[in-house]
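Entry 14. Structure prediction run on the chain below.
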Amino acid sequence: MPDNSLIREIPSELGELLGLTSLDLSENQLSGEIPAELGNLTNLEWVFLKGNALMGCVPQSLLDAHGDANRLDLPVCN
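Output returned:
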């Protein structure tokens, strides 16, 4: 759902979509922190979150689960 003017925080409930293979929330107006629950999505191959107003660092659970992902496009830690 890139570039759809989505606002608010990324819902932690996305971590329950265990069959998800790609997640593209880039270029929206999402804020808050990246939920650690995204680390539950072990089938993810693509993660795009850049271009939002996200705060904090990428959760270690997400990096641990997807360090070998084909493509990680994540915001820098601020």
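The mean pLDDT is 83.
Filed with the rest of this week's runs.
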